[in-house]
Each structure stands twice: as C-alpha cells, then as structure tokens.
C-alpha cells in the first residue's frame, strides 16, 4: 500500500502541475486574443473593409463616325492586350519581370506601366502590352500561374481608315489626363481615349457614352460574390457626318503640295461636304502619345499641319469681299445697279492716293463690270459712300465675322471691324480705313469656312449655317432641307446683280478668272477671285515694277477663290485659300474649278440620296426614336 | 481485508442504473454546450443556413453522444484489455494509409471505412494513451526508475509519431508526442530523464528540420514572419488576424462577420472556425468559448484525480491532454501564435471522423469516471 500511495502522490502532484500548465497556456491564448481583437482591432477592422468591396466600371464602346453614305471615318478595332491589376499581385515588379521573360518589354514601357499603376486605384487594370498576337497570348496563358494580376482581354483602339485625309475634321483621340479622369472615372479604364480635336472632341461625350458601374462584393481572390448595385452604362452613339469621303479625298488631292485649305458645302442647306486642309497629319499618332520629335516637327513647320486652316486660319478676304460691299451699297442706296463710275487707276481721298490693281484704270464701269474686272477704285467709292458700319452689318448677314454653328472646336470667328470696335481700341476710324475695307483689306480677318458660307448665302439668299452632322445615333438631325433655313431678306434683284457679276468674272471674255470656267457641258460656275497682301506694298516697290513672285514664300500674297455652281440652280458652294499663292485667279482659280468639277461629277448631293438611317451600327440598342423632324 | 477494500469489491458489480447515476452529467452538458457553439458557428459559416455544415454537425454529435454514453457503460477493465489490440490496429491503419490512403491537401491522411473518411492518426492518439496507461498501470514508483522498463513505451510513442510525420502531418505528430510525454510524466518518470529528453530534442530538432517537407518548413518560416509572404503561406494567418481584429471587443454580431462569409477566411468551417466565432462575437465571445474549453480540460483532469486505479488515472489524463492539445494548437494557430497545421477545434469544427474519435475519447473518459472506484489490480507490480 505504501508503494501505491507513493505512486498516487506522484500522479496527483504531476497531474496538478499539468493542469496548471494547461490553464496557463489557455490564459496566454486569452491574452493574445485580447491583443489581436481589442488592442490591434481597429487596424484590422480597416483592413477588413478594404478587403470587401470593389467597384468595377464597364467601359462603353465609343461611337463611330460615318460619312453621309455610311462609310466609316472613325471606327474601333479590337485589340487583344495584356492588363495588370495591381490589386491582384503583391509584387508588381516580379510579375512584370516574369511577363518580360515571355513578351519582351522595353524600358520606357516599364516606366509607363509603373507610372500608370501609381496613378490609378489599385483595382483599375493597366495596359501592359497592346496588340498581342496569338503566339504571345498563348505564352501568357500557359504561364498564367507565374503572372498573378495579369489578365488578357479584348479592348478597342480607335482607327481612322482615311487617316490624314480627314484629320482636321475628325480630329483625334488621345489618352486622358488626370483632370479628365476626375470628371469621368471611366476614362481611367485601360485603353480609353478622349477626343482632343475635331468632331472627336466636339462630340466627345456623345461618342463616349457613360460607363456602367457595378459595386461588387469580392472575396479574397477577387472573385465576385455578388453584385451590390449596378448602374447601367450608356453606349456611345454613332454620328453620321455630312462629309462625303469620296469628294473629300479628291479635294485634298486638288490642293496638291500647296499650304492651302478648301471648303465645299451644299449651298442649299449648309451641309459641309468636304473640308480639306493641306498639309495634314496622321491622327492615329495621337492614340498612344506623340513623340517629342514628331511634335517639334509639326509645331515648327511654318505650313502648320496641325491647324485646321479651313476653320481656324484667318485671312483678309481681298476682292472676294466685294460682293458684300456691293450689296451693302445697294441696300444703303449708295449706288444703283446701273450707275457707272469712272476708274482712272486711282482714287484720291484727302492727300492719300488709293491705287487700283490696274495701273491704267478701268474707265467707266457699272456694278457688274466692276465685279467682272474686280475694279478697286469702284469699290473704294462704294465703300466711301456706304460707310463701314453698313458694310460690316452686311458682312455679318453673310456669316462673316460672326460665330458659325459648326460642330467643330477651335473655329475662329474672324473679324469684321466697325467704328465702335476701333473706338474700343482707343483709336479713331479714318475714312481711309473705310476705303481699304471696300476691297477686303484692312482689319478684315476671315476663315475659308466663313467665305464658303458667304458663297452659299450669295447663291441661295438663305441664311444657311455650315454643319457637319446628319445623324446622331441613327436619328436624322434637323437642317437637311432648304426650308429649315431662314431667308436673308435681301431684294432678289440685288442678289441677282451680284451673282451676274460673279458669272461674268468666270464666263465672260476679259473676266478676271476666265481660267476657272468649267469645261462641263451645260454647267456654269460663278466665282470671285481674291489676292491679299501679307505685307504692305510700298510706293518705291510699286514704281520699280514690283512682282510678288520675287518675294520670299512667307511674304507672298494669299490667293483666294469663292464660287458656286451650277449658276442657274446652285447646289455647291466653295472657298479655296492658297497661302502665299500670289494671284487669286492664277493659283486658286484652277484649284476651285477642279474641285467644283469633282463636286459636280461625284455629285454627293444629287447623285444618290444618303440613307435616312445608317444601315448597320455597332450600337444595336441605340434609341429608336423617330428620325425625322 | 480492510474496509476500503471490501467496499471496492462490493462495488465492482453495480447495475445499469448505478452506472448511469455515476455518469458526470455536468460534463456531458459542457460537451453539449460546446457542440452548440459549433452549431452556431457552422450555421454562420454556411452563410446563415444549417446547410451544408451545421445540420450534419449536430447529427454527428448526436451519434457521437450515444456512442460516448455507450462506451461509458463498458467496464474499464474490459477496455484495458483492448488497449494493446487497439494500438496494433491503429499502427496497422497508419501503415496502410501511407500506402493506400488518399491524398488530401498534399498529405496522405485519410482512409475510407464504413462510408466515412477516417484519419488513423485520430484513432492513434487514443490508442496510444490506452496502451501507455495499460503499460504503466501496475508500474510502481521504483519500477518507473528502471530505464529498461521505459524503452518499450518510448518505442510505442516513437513508432506512430514517425509514421504520422511521414504522412506528412506535423501538427498531429507533435500532439501525439506531447500526449505521450504527458502520460510518461504522470506515470512517474524521473525528472532528470525529462530534462535529458528535452535536451536531446533541442539538439536533434535542427537536424530534423532538414528532413521536413518544404511546405512544413514554409509554415515554420511563415510563423516566424507571416507578413513576408502574404499571398502564400502567410495568407491564412493574416486573413485570420484581420477577421479576428475586425471582431473587436463585442464582435460584428451573429451572421454579420464579413470576412468569413466572403471567403477571405480560409477553411473557415474547419481549422479556422474559431476565427469565425471571434469575428462575430468579439473578444468577449472568444473568451467565453475559451472558458468553456478550459472547463472541459480541467474536468478531465478532475476525473483523473478522482479515479482510484492507475489505468483510469492515466487514461483520463491522456485524453484530457489530447483534447487540450487540440484546443491549444488550433486556437494558437488561428491567432498566428504557432505555425498552421491541419488541427480542427474539437466538437466545433466541421469534420466527421475527428468528432467521432473525440467522442470515443470522451466515452473512455466517462467510463473511467463511472468505474472510478472499481478494484483494478491496485498495488501489484507486473510479474
């Protein structure tokens, strides 16, 4: 029994020791639990929240731009690409290292990816590599386990089938900057672009649509458990332009190598059929960021390829302004249609002598004859009698110096001066100023677009506005019918006199622009030349037999031409400006004639009716409202 | 024959009613409470539904309870005779599982039997305690001083430990070794031998580390610095800590735990069930569960101390130690205090065979309690 008691005693002591140890160990666990749950609790609770909810944006496809016959001018090409979601990998650099072993990444690409990863929230995917081919994709997919955070998806890239031919009208898209992303978080999605110029910019919101947002509850591996909330996005709408890509192509070709621009409009409703600027640029270069060298080349080029000269180039209209002066004079009863004025080759006002372009003078001329010969002295006198404010008011009625409702950013209004404008500058308006404005010089600054509008309004007597949009999301926009536009409220006989003068310019022997006569049977063109000095011609130069061809390029006068045709039933109006092209008749005239010949031959307005609704569309769910108004 | 001995003899044959009367119903109630905690946790882990975990859990517990009470009525002396056969069967199964068991989560631990998957290592833990208790049953204090007497039981511990390490299942191997050590200690092994063994383990451990599987090494490294590889092996621990921490003092509320329900929490219905509880019921709830577990551990120790024969004492102590080791390893693991090892929280975690074996253990414990006063070869040495 003694031995038994000894054994039991040992057991009891040791069992109690073990029990104490067990209790102590559980106490340590309780302490540790207090540490994790209560002392560090707040920190872990924050971690828990970020673990849980993820917002996912669903990009809307950008709407296409189509020409009046449905030809794609700006479309979307699918683009297989590798994306990186920083949230899904702990080691961005490690993942990229592994990726670069499969598909080489240049250093500057690594820099760009690193920048974008830092800039965006961590669940936003960043493009690692665009335009993967099948082989690359296979390599990436096979090695997916080594590439946490990398995923392959198909996005879209903007594509411009006509590249430089329509660059100034269509504009271009470029990566958004940080302020853009603040405004519309969708732009943070990989590969999304924002319209930066042209129609792409003007209609950016319409084309872009709105991203859908899904608030997702995600689990630890980023897999979606359920959707907490969803706002459907709005798809970008297709926009049908008034442009005829075929005519546009030939117009640009007609401009040749000149630094020039031309606008062709349907003069009955203001639809812009072609708007060409030369030289041009490749708009897709902006898609992924323009290189420094390319940018310097563009901006240092004195022919300014990036500027839409048709809508933002400013030129003195020269003699193309004389129709406005004539109509202002007729309206102010400063002159009649038949009154003849004598041109001795100059006009003296006070002690200043104003010269006619014809040294010997034109003799007696009526209004039609003055237009036909583009006599300066005649219009000096008309301007003197009419006064600048009347001329400016008439110019404004023809769309000159006023804001035009065209769907382009950066369109310049130009300047038609008034006495008030001059006084606001603190200067007095002199009679001499009025005289020079009679022949379209002085302070006048107009765009080729506004000159085309002037030609269209002269031809139809209607206040058509130039516009580029026919349909938005398959819905026909107002303004396609002539009746949509108000009359200019000018006496028809005044207009007819001016048109007659323009007809004589081209079609009568001795007209200043016989060279611009159409060779098409039964169709006649009415037009007007213009040459505007870039630099004042001094008396000395004039006396020494001055020739503008001898000047350096940038000091030569600009050559202008405006026209409409057919003369009897006007359909097309155009303006052509050749920078530093010397004489309007010799340089711009033939270009205008050829463009008008193309317009009449291709005949985008009369040849076939553009479809009321654009046939096929990438936005099948676009609103189906009634198209006509 | 003393009075005491006469009473012992008288009480060797009490009837069924007497046995039922001797069952510690308080202890049974504690076990039911723990299973109830498990039901609540699994209901939440099932996303607020008794499917797929909670209803199975409670059915299994009911089965286990019947099994436990049945075993409690079996005479402890009969059980003692089964000790070595049970040990032999367990070792055989361990060998079998190494050759034909199927692999789950990178380890051969499971074997199909009677429509269920069994981990022989679970059975081994109990069989080892039975075998050791049987060996030391008649060993006097003096006999415990004989080193040769200790060699066979030491081998009895070493064989299953090595087999389980080979599965590989480091966590369970450590538990088996610890339980064996506790029985040795309680049986009266001399302290200097305990010190010597500890010193040997201290020297051998670094060498053994070289023979560990990569994943086992990774776990140990992760344990030392969990933030070093948050998406790899450290992921579980970090997510578990995030979930526990977001529980705070009072918890997110029942079914309101976001981390567990969104599967940020790995294996929430098995190994990390305590985290689930901690997130939803906070520190207060976690402490309550720990308190309940402590009562069960100490209750087993109390049964051991109340027992009048060495076999029962050692068996009860071993089973209590086994339960404690389960609890300690699991809870310490989810709090990031020790390396992760596939050790469930008994009676709370989802899992079939583990719960059955735990209940078998408690059945043995209760049999010890029912038969605490029977005459069972007291005071005589082995021949």
Helices, strands, pairings?
The complex is a heterodimer of chains A (629) and B (383).
Chain A: H1 2-39, H2 41-50, E1 53-58, E2 65-66, E3 72-84, H3 92-102, H4 107-119, E4 126-129, H5 134-142, E5 150-159, H6 167-170, E6 172-174, H7 178-183, E7 194-197, H8 198-202, H9 204-208, E8 212-218, E9 224-231, E10 239-241, H10 245-254, E11 260-266, E12 272-278, H11 292-300, H12 309-312, H13 322-331, E13 341-343, E14 346-349, E15 352-355, E16 363-365, H14 367-373, H15 376-386, H16 388-397, H17 419-424, H18 431-437, H19 448-460, E17 469-472, E18 475-476, H20 492-507, E19 526-532, H21 539-543, E20 558-565, E21 572-578, H22 584-602
Parallel strand pairs in A: 2-10
Antiparallel strand pairs in A: 1-8, 2-3, 3-4, 3-5, 6-7, 8-9, 10-17, 11-12, 11-21, 13-16, 14-15, 17-18, 19-20, 20-21
Helix pairs in contact in A: 10-22, 13-15, 13-16, 13-20, 14-20, 15-18
Chain B: H1 3-10, H2 16-22, H3 25-45, H4 54-73, H5 76-81, H6 83-100, E1 102-104, E2 107-113, E3 116-118, H7 120-136, H8 141-144, H9 147-166, H10 170-187, H11 191-210, H12 214-224, H13 234-247, H14 258-261, H15 273-306, H16 310-334, H17 352-370
Helix pairs in contact in B: 3-4, 3-15, 4-17, 6-7, 6-9, 7-9, 7-10, 7-16, 9-10, 10-16, 13-15, 15-16, 15-17, 16-17
How would you briefly describe this protein structure?
The complex is a heterodimer of chains A (629) and B (383). With 629 residues, chain A is an alpha+beta fold. Chain B has one domain (19-370).
């Amino acid at each position: 029994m003694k031995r038994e008691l000894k054994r039991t005693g040992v057991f009891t002591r040791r069992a109690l020791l073990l029990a104490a140890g067990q209790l102590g160990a559980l106490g340590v666990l309780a302490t540790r639990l207090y540490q994790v749950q209560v002392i560090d609790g707040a920190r872990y609770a924050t971690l828990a929240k970020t673990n849980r909810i993820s917002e996912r944006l669903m990009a809307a496809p950008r709407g296409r731009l189509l020409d009046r016959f449905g030809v794609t001018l700006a479309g979307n090409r699918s683009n297989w690409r590798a994306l990186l979601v920083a949230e899904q990998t702990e080691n961005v650099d490690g993942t990229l290292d592994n990726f670069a072993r499969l598909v080489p990444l240049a250093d500057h690409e690594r820099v760009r990816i690193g920048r974008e990863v830092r800039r965006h929230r961590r669940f936003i995917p960043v493009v690692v590599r665009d335009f993967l081919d099948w082989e690359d994709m296979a390599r990436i997919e096979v090695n997916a386990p080594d590439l946490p955070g990398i995923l392959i998806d198909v996005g879209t890239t903007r594509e411009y089938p006509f590249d430089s031919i329509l660059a100034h009208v269509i504009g271009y898209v470029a990566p958004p900057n940080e302020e853009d992303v603040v405004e519309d978080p969708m732009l943070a999605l990989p590969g999304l672009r924002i319209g930066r110029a042209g129609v792409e910019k003007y209609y950016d919101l319409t084309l872009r649509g709105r991203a859908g947002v899904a608030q997702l509850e995600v689990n630890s591996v980023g897999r979606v458990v359920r959707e907490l909330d969803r706002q459907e996005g709005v798809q970008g709408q297709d926009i049908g332009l008034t442009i005829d890509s075929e005519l546009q192509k030939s117009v640009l070709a007609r401009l040749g190598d000149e630094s020039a621009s031309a606008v062709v409009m349907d003069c009955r409703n203001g639809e812009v059929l072609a708007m060409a600027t030369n030289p041009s640029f490749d708009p897709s270069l902006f898609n992924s960021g323009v290189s420094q060298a390319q940018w310097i080349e563009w901006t240092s080029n004195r022919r300014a390829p990036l500027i839409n000269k048709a809508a933002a180039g400013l030129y003195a209209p020269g003699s193309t302004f004389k129709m406005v002066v004539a109509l202002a004079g007729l309206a102010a009863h400063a002159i009649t249609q038949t009154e003849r004025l004598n041109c001795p080759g100059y006009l003296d006002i006070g002690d200043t002598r104003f010269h006619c372009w014809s040294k010997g003078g034109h003799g007696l001329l009526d209004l039609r004859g003055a237009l036909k010969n583009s006599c300066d002295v005649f219009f000096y006198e008309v301007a003197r009698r009419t006064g600048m404010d009347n001329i400016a008011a008439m110019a404004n009625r023809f769309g000159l110096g006023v804001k035009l409702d065209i769907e382009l950013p950066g369109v310049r209004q130009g300047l038609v001066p008034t006495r008030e404008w001059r006084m606001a500058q603190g200067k007095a308006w002199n009679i001499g100023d009025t005289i020079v404005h009679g022949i379209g010089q002085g302070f006048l600054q107009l765009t080729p677009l506004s000159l085309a509008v002037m030609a269209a309004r002269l031809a139809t007597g209607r206040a058509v506005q130039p516009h580029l949009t026919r349909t938005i999301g398959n819905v026909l926009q107002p303004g396609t019918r002539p009746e949509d536009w108000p009359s200019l409220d000018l006496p028809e006989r005044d207009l007819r006199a001016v048109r007659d003068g323009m007809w004589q310019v081209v079609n009568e022997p001795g007209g200043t622009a016989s060279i611009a006569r159409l060779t098409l049977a039964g169709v006649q063109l009415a037009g007007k030349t213009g040459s505007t000095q870039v630099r004042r011609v001094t008396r000395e130069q004039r006396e020494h037999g001055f020739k503008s061809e001898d000047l350096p390029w940038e000091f030569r006068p600009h050559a202008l031409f405006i026209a409409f045709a057919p003369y009897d039933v006007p359909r097309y109006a155009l303006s052509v400006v050749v920078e530093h092209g010397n004489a309007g008749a010799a340089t711009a005239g033939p270009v205008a004639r050829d463009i008008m010949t193309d317009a009449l031959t291709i005949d985008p307005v009369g040849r076939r009716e553009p479809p009321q609704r654009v046939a096929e569309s990438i936005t099948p769910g676009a609103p189906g409202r009634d198209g006509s108004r | 024959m003393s009075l005491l001995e006469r009473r012992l003899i008288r009480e060797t044959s009490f009837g069924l009613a007497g046995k039922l009367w001797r069952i510690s119903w308080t202890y049974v109630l504690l076990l039911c409470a723990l299973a109830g905690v498990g039901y609540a946790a699994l209901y939440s882990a099932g996303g607020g539904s008794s499917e797929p975990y909670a209803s199975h859990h409670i059915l299994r517990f009911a089965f286990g309870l019947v099994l436990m009470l049945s075993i409690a009525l079996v005479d402890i002396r009969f059980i003692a005779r089964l000790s070595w056969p049970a040990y032999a069967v367990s070792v055989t199964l361990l060998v079998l599982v190494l050759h034909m068991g199927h692999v789950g989560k990178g380890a051969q631990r499971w074997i199909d039997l009677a429509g269920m998957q069994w981990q022989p290592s679970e059975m081994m833990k109990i069989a080892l305690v039975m075998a050791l208790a049987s060996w030391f049953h008649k060993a006097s204090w003096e006999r415990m001083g004989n080193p040769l007497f200790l060699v066979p039981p030491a081998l009895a511990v070493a064989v299953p430990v090595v087999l389980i390490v080979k599965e590989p299942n480091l966590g369970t191997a450590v538990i088996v070794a610890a339980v064996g050590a506790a029985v040795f200690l309680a049986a009266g092994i001399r302290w200097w031998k305990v010190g010597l063994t500890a010193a040997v383990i201290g020297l051998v451990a670094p060498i053994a580390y070289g023979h560990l599987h990569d994943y086992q090494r990774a776990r140990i490294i992760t344990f030392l610095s969990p933030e070093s590889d948050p998406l790899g092996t450290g992921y579980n621990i970090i997510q578990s800590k995030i979930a526990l921490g977001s529980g705070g003092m009072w918890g997110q509320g029942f079914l309101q735990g976001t981390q567990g329900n969104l599967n940020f929490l790995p294996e929430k219905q098995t190994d990390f069930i305590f985290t689930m509880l901690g997130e939803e019921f906070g520190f207060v709830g976690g402490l309550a569960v720990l308190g309940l577990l402590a009562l069960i551990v100490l209750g087993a120790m109390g049964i051991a101390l109340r027992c009048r024969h060495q076999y029962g004492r050692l068996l009860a102590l071993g089973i209590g130690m086994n339960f404690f080791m389960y609890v300690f390893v699991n809870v310490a693991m989810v709090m990031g205090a020790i390396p992760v090892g596939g050790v469930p929280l008994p009676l709370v975690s989802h899992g079939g065979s583990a719960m059955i074996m735990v209940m078998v253990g408690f059945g043995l414990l209760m049999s010890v309690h029912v038969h605490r006063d029977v005459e069972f070869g007291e005071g005589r040495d082995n021949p």
